[in-house]
Automatic annotation (TrEMBL):
Top-level taxonomic group: Eukaryota
Organism expressing this protein natively: Rhododendron griersonianum
Taxonomic path: Eukaryota, Viridiplantae, Streptophyta, Embryophyta, Tracheophyta
Domain EF-hand: 14-49, 54-85
Protein name as annotated: EF-hand domain-containing protein
SMART domains, per database record: EFh
MF GO annotations: calcium ion binding
A Pfam family annotated for this UniProt entry: EF-hand_6
Database matches in InterPro entries: EF-hand-dom_pair, EF_Hand_1_Ca_BS, EF_hand_dom
Length: 91
């Protein structure tokens, strides 16, 4: 039997701007916002076992205008959600 932790905490201290920058690098089409797929890939690159459902939950939490993307203006809410849910340390 294999027991795996579905998501692990990331205890790397980052500034809010550093975390935003890391997330923005995954805006693959350059439209200035993150899709669910881009969001999933961004958090996976930061060491999280991040599936489509978790990406959808994060998107729903931070997507204030309901367009299905995380814009620059909504990024702060995404960062708050990430620190609360996944153990990111933001200073």
């Amino acid at each position: 039997m294999v027991i795996c932790n579905p998501i692990k905490s990331v205890n790397v201290p980052l500034t809010e701007e550093q975390l935003k920058g890391l997330l923005k690098r995954h805006d693959k089409n350059g439209d200035g916002r993150l899709s669910r797929k881009e969001l999933r890939e961004a958090f996976r690159s930061l060491g999280l076992d991040f599936n489509g459902w978790r990406a959808w939950r994060a998107l729903c939490h931070a997507d204030e205008n309901g367009d299905g993307y995380i814009s620059e203006a909504e990024m702060k809410e995404l960062v708050k959600y990430a620190t609360k849910k996944w153990g990111f340390t933001v200073s």
